[in-house]
Structures are given as C-alpha cells and as structure tokens.
Amino acid sequence: MHRKKVLLKVIILGDSGVGKTALMNQYVNKRFSSSYKATIGADFLTKEVMIDDKLVTLQIWDTAGQERFQSLGVAFYRGADVCILVYDVTNPKSFDALDSWREEFLVQASPADIENFPFVVLGNKVDRENDRRVPKAKAQAWCKSKASAPLRYFETSAKEAVQVEAAFQEAAQLALAQENTEADFLPETINLGQPTPSHTTKSSCC
Amino acid sequence: MGQRKIFALTLAGKRVWSSVGDEVSESEVSSLTGLCTAVMGVCEQQGETIRSVSCGSGRIVCARRGELVFVAAGSSDCEAYLARELEYAYEAMLMALTSRVHKVLASSPGYDVKELLGSTGTVLSSLEAWGRTRPEPFLGAARAARLEASRRAQLAHVLASARKISGDLLVFGVALCGDAVLSVLQPTPTIERRLRSTDLLLLANYVRSQRAALVAAESSWLPLCLPRFDERGYFHAFVAYLDPAVDLCLVLVAADDKPETFATLRNVSKAIENALLRDGVLDALRDAAVEDYRAADRIAETAKADHFIFSRRRPLAAQPPKEPRAELALAQCLSARAVGTHHWAHYHALALRLRCGSAQPQHALATDPNTSAHDLFEAPLAASLVYATSNARTYFALTAPNFELYATFASLAPASDLAKRTHHILSLIKLEEPAFFFDPVSY
C-alpha cells in the first residue's frame, strides 16, 4: 500500500472567544479547558491522519482573533490549503464577522483560485443550545451564498467533542483535493540568445 | 540540536527537501519549519530580514531565496559556513528545477515542490554529504583530476573536434573521472556569460549522485540547469560512462532537447570514445582515475603534512598585470585524501579569520626570503595567512589572489619550519601545475 507523506496547512479564523484554540486542542490533544486565554499572534499544532490511503500531516494554525494581531495575517495565511471559519452560535456578532474574515483571508493569502478555495464553516458551542442566537438555517444559507458549491458547514462543540473530528477530517479532505491542481510546472529550455540575468554579472567569482 | 541539519521549505512552511531525509516525519519537523517561516514572515512584514537565531549552543541560519526558504540548524558550525551550505543547497535545487519554481510557487504558494523534485532530492543529499567531508564546496572549486600535460592536450583536442562534429550543437563538454574534472569544453567566456566553477562542481556532484542510474542506462538525456550560468532554463545533457569500472564519464551539453540532438550527441560521444581509444588517451584517463588522490598524497608526505587542500583561482604562472582570460579562469582544487574530518572545522575557522581580516601579514612566516610565497606566485603583498594549533596539530591557511592553501601539520612546529613545509607544498604543486590543473578548451 502506497503511503505518501503530505503536509497540509490549515488556518482557523474567527472572532476572539469563539473557541478556535479549544477546537484545535480538542482535535489534536482531545482536551478541553474552560478557562479562556487569548492567543497572542498565532500558535500551531500538528496531527497525522490517514486520508484516502495517504498519510497526511495537518499543520493547524490557530490565529489570534483580536484585531491588534490582524496585521500578522499574511505571514501565517501564505500557502494555506484550507481555511476553517469559526463563529459562536450564541454570539450573532461573531457570525456577522464571517464575511470579513473570509475576505481578509482571500486578500492576504491570495490563493490562485479564489472561487474554489476550500472553506469549512463551524458553528461552535452547540453544547449551549439554550443560548443559541444564530439559527442553523441562517448559517447554512450564508454557506450557500458564498460559492457555486455551498461551503461545508458543521455545528460543533469543542467542550463535548461534537463533530470536531468530522469537521477537521472534511477540511483535510478538501485540502487534499486541492493539492497541485492550481499550477503546472512547465520547464523551459534555455535561450542562449536571451540577455544574461543581471544578478549573475554582479558576482565575479566562482 | 547536535549534527547539522538543512531544510528547504516553501514560504508556506512546507518541506521541499531536508538532509534528514523522509525517514523523519512531517510532524516531527513541522514545529521547526512552521516556526521558521512564521518568524521570517513576521520579520519581513516589519521590513527586517532575519539571518540567524542563536539558541543556547545551537544556531539556526535562514536564507530566503525567492519563494523558497533555506534553514540550517547546527551547534558546531559558524553562521558563514552554514549560510554557504544553504547557498549550495539552493543552487543544487535550481539545477533540478530552474528559477521557474519561483513562478509556480508565487501563483500557488501551497504547491508541493517536494513531489516536483522527486528523486533528484538525492542530488541535494549528496551535495550536503560533500559539504561535510570534501574540499570542493569549501573552496568553491571543482576538483581537477591529475593527467599528464601531453595527454590533457590530446583530450582537449578531441573535445574541440567534437564540437565541430556536432555541427555546433555542443555547448559544453565535460570529461569526468569520478567526481574530478579531466577537461572542459566551453564557449569563450565573458564577464557576463561563462561557466562558473560552482556550476562545474554541481554538475560533478549531480553525475556522482545519479551514478547507478546513469551506468545502468548506458547513455542518458537529462534536463539540467547550470544556475550560475543562467538559472532560467534547462540545458540538455547527454551522459555516458566510457568506463564505469573507473568512473570515466562524458557529459555533452546542448541547448535544445530535440530527439535529433540526442542522436547527434550520441554519435559525438562515440566519436570521442573512438578518438581516445585510437590515440591511447583512454588508457591514460584510466590511469588518472586510478591515480586519483595519490599525487596529492605524495606531496603531503614529502612536505610532512597530514593533509592539505589547494585551490587555484587562476593559472599560477599568469603575471599580475591581469589578462582578461586569467580573470575568467575556472577555480580548480587539489586535495590530499582526508583521514577523519577534524581538518574541516579548523579550516573553516581559519577561513573565517581570513575573511574577518585577522590574518598575519605573510612575511611573518617568511623569515627566509626563499620561502616566501612571493617567488612562487607573484602575489606578495596581497597574500595573507593564519594558523592555529590544537591537539598537537597545527592548522595553516595561506591565501593570495590566485590561490588558497589549507594544510594540517602533525606537530607544533616553529613558524620558520611551517614556512618551509608550506613552501614545499606550493613548489611541488607549481612544478606539476600543467598536470594537476586543466585549461578549459574555449571555442
């Protein structure tokens, strides 16, 4: 059985306090802590999973939701294979912010195929169903409106490990499907009539 | 941190190649690669460039080259040395992929270049291993194979004729003996466009690293970039082993990949082989292959040196009023066989001192005018030397505009004695210069 090693870069975005760090910790470490600590800049964890006969390493980047860290975006988003957008089902403001998170990501990461870049949307904290203020249908409608094929949507609870595994598995699957579909490497034969590149004339030795 | 490790990554933090190979999983190196690309990215956003990070006794050196990032981590090597290793790794990668790899990554930052590099990752691994034990990367020079001057002239004549037989399709021709160079055919070099010694040593490394496949194939047709010559496109190289038993190999390089060019170069290769057989040159080349390090070892023994490496930047006989051709010469090196690896760390330390300008003036050792490098190499004032002692050995470096010499002596000899022994090495090399080094055939 052929087992190819692949690294997939997963970015988690969303307002502060929606549970991005908790989701990542639940998925990677199977742990949940109810105490809140704001993420400074970004953090990442890795996890190996098997997807369609491929051994895949997910490098999951948990970014800071706070506005003061937003300028660091491009350094972390570059080369992302999939983006997970997270909101809190008990906080409508965090749902309203999904548009700007998505746009910010597409601007900063500038993927080759903006239309088809894979996003997965998570409505987190469904363990607090009684406090829900964003109906599931509203979130699904938003997901349908963003691309020709609806964005994949999961309702999760990092606290009770509801749908966390499935959501990340889906993200990895989508990322893997994207692999190397965007560009072709077309080697070119040297053209000796072409002027010499300037940098080679600068170096006089060796 | 331990032994030096080298990684090539995309800006997304994805590993393209690493000296630790595929046995170490992505998740094991992911922390380092993720951290490096994030730190570099953040620094770049602030308008800064990060070159190295010290952490305890360890050091991480980073270099961004277009859309790629090269990282070296080690505890015993200096920053300058690690930075040069990264430069070689980058150029070996360009040899396999050309600078087009940057275009692909710019449009698709998540692209899996590792897959693109495929089996040529072994070329980088081979070069990395060279960096630890061999003089070529250290001196930035291709190793020349010793061959009697008259035989070398015959070989040069055969290569020059090959260019005519090819109908001018042949751009470069390189005769290799293992990883040492016997002769080179090249276009007349200019400051703008010329074959560099780095390209030549990368080519020798490439052939060596792919030896098994090349020998099995009898003749091969490979796309190859010579990055210092022009990193933007591929040449196409016809590679054939004339005698695999002694690693005699011919690399014929053309600037197009047409099937008829391959057929022409195959005929040219056959013509070269026949000419070498007819004139008895092939036997001389076989002898050269067997000789390999022996001549340099004899010099070391005669001069009572443990080991030495020597690089000729341009012909020693050339007079200082600079001839343009001399300026364009290919750097070539000569080396005694290394026993153990203790020399390298000391040579690196000496090289660093020379670059930092902490060398003694060369007359410090030349107590006797007859032992001055002046007489031998007409490079009196610009020559500089450094030496250091450690574990009852003396490590010595002497550089001048046209050469570099690094030597190890198994004693704590007085300075005047060191000067005599060094002079001895230099005079023996000069005596056999036409045999030790080749003059490229230019058309």
TrEMBL record, chain A:
Q: Give the species this sequence originates from.
A: Chrysophaeum taylorii
Query: What InterPro entries has UniProt attached to this entry?
Result: P-loop_NTPase, Small_GTP-bd, Small_GTPase
The UniProt entry, under SMART domains, shows: RAB, RAN, RAS, RHO
Does the UniProt entry include the keyword GTP-binding? yes
- Reading the lineage from the top rank, the first entry is Eukaryota
- Gene3D superfamilies in the cross-refs: P-loop containing nucleotide triphosphate hydrolases
User: What are the protein's GO molecular function terms?
Assistant: GTP binding; GTPase activity
Sorted keywords for this record are: GTP-binding, Lipoprotein, Nucleotide-binding, Prenylation
For this entry, the protein name equals Uncharacterized protein
What Pfam family is a match, any one? Ras
Keyword presence, GTP-binding: yes
**Which CDD domains is this protein grouped with?**
Rab7
Similarity field: Belongs to the small GTPase superfamily. Rab family.
TrEMBL record, chain B:
- The lineage's top-level taxon is Eukaryota
**InterPro entries tied to this protein:** FUZ/MON1/HPS1_longin_1, FUZ/MON1/HPS1_longin_2, Mon1
Q: Which Pfam families does the UniProt record give?
A: Fuz_longin_1, Fuz_longin_2
Q: Per the database record, which ranges form the FUZ/MON1/HPS1 second Longin domain?
A: 171-265
Q: Name one GO biological process term.
A: vesicle-mediated transport
Q: Which residues form the FUZ/MON1/HPS1 first Longin domain?
A: 6-127
Q: What is this protein called?
A: Vacuolar fusion protein MON1 homolog
Q: Which organism is it from?
A: Chrysophaeum taylorii
